[in-house]
Amino acid sequence: MLLIEDNESLAESVRLYFHNEGHPLDWVNSVEKAQNSLSFDEFDLLILDINLPGASGFQLLQSLRSKGNRIPVLVLTARTEIDDRVSALDFGADDYLAKPFDFRELSARCRALYRRERGKASNDIICGNLIYDLAVHTAVVNGVVLDLRHRERQLLELFLKNLDRVLTKDDISNRLYHFDEAYTPNAIEQTLTRLRKQLTGSSLIIKTIRGLGYLAHVDD
Q1: Higher pLDDT, 107 or 41
Q2: What are phi and psi of 53, to 5 degrees?
Q3: Residue 22 half-sphere exposure, CB side, CA atoms within 13 Å?
Q4: What is the pLDDT of residue 155?
Q5: Is 49 exposed, middle or buried (0-12, 13-18, 19+ CB in 10 A)?
Q6: 180-218: burial string, b at 16+ Cβ within 10 Å, e else
Q7: Residue 100: is the preceding peptide bond cis (ω within 30°)?
Q8: Under a CB-based contact definition with an 8 Å cutoff, are residues 101 and 159 in contact?
Q9: pLDDT tens across 98-129, in order?
């Protein structure tokens, strides 16, 4: 996810909340920086403030939609007048949340947007005998809850959202770590090794595609 918000303390609080939930979230404080991030990276969802220095959030939203970019956008702003809400939705926002807000509601709304994007009504991702709950970040295999570490849960969720698609190490690192978070070169391999052990006996298979990356698929 990408948060576009110029209030540093609020942005850091949102980033920390989602990080603790197992979702790395990148943050920029202007439309210009957001456009730069969107030009070289893919995001599942944008959390967009309206009152920003320079170009407004509305301008970014209009620009994205005019280019055919359908990424889910949740507008997050202190502007609560009905005209502002109508404008946000008419410009292409998928949801609207007024400040101040409860982090739990923000998280729930983000999950709802992700479900809508997938065409699903449930928080569960079901892959054979593996069930992953997006709301509470638990994985169950044959009725047994897996004891996953924080990074293992993040990596599993990433693979589940990208089944049958090759993910490079860059794809994985960009989604598991935010901009200023350091990690060692073999951190991904170590996390993947532990995750594979946890998934022993499950229907989810993670293959190494030599020279390309990794691919997760469901074994029938």
Answers
A1: 107
A2: -65, 135
A3: 18
A4: 92
A5: buried
A6: eeeeeeebbeebbeebeebbeebbbebeeeeeebbbbeb
A7: yes
A8: no
A9: 889 999 999 999 988 887 776 555 678 889 99
